[in-house]
Amino acid sequence: MKNKTLLITFLSVAAFAIGCKPSDEKSTSQQLDKVQTETKQAAQDMKDYTFAEKAEFVKTMQDQLTALNQDLDKLSAKIDSSSDAIKAEAKPKLQALRDQATKLNQQLADAPNATESTWDSVKASSKKAYNELKDGFNQARQWVSDKIAP
Fold first, then answer.
1. Radius of gyration over alpha carbons of the chain, in Å?
2. How far apart are CA 146 and CA 141, in angstroms?
3. 117-130 residue pLDDT tens
4. Going by C-beta distance under 8 Å and a sequence separation of 6 or more, which residues neighbour residue 82?
């Protein structure tokens, strides 16, 4: 009886080991990591900050704005190395994005002064301004990639 149990256990482990492919394990692990990262980012983006968390909200938004400004600087450098016609066409687009970034930065500077009754409005307008800036930047990046060969 003891040998029979040992044999069944051994066969079960062997069948499990044969059924698992190392290459699938690695790709599945990578996919899981990717999904977890995307989910974590989405959860952070969707987080509904309460009035008590306004300092965290402002810091998160400022960090995102800083990253977007860095990307905007890189895009600007790419445009600067292009033809005069593209520079002339891109200049107003870049200025509009920089103006939006300045406006958002001012909103974030004013956010710590929000009261509990005005918090939802401040938060919503800041998120809206950030999303508009991000969308504008993505459109500008697409425009640059269409105009300038990589």
1. 25
2. 9
3. 999 999 999 999 99
4. 90, 147, 148
| 30-61 pLDDT, tens digit each | 555 655 565 455 445 546 788 888 899 999 99
CA distance 141 to 135: 10
Q: pTM of the predicted model, to two decimals?
A: 0.63
Distance (Å, whole) CA 140 – CA 75: 8
d(Cα 14, Cα 61) in Å, to the nearest integer?
52
Q: Do 78 and 143 touch, CB atoms closer than 8 A? A: no
Q: How far apart are CA 150 and CA 139, in angstroms?
A: 16
Using the structure block, give the residue that is written with the tokens 């008590």.
Answer: 52
Element (H, E) at 3: helix 2-19
Q: Are 122 and 56 in contact (CB under 8 A)?
A: no
- Furthest CA-CA distance within the chain: 87
What lies within 8 Å, CB to CB, of 100 at 6+ separation is 129, 132, 133, 136
Alpha-carbon torsion, ordered 25, 26, 32, 35, to 10 deg: -140
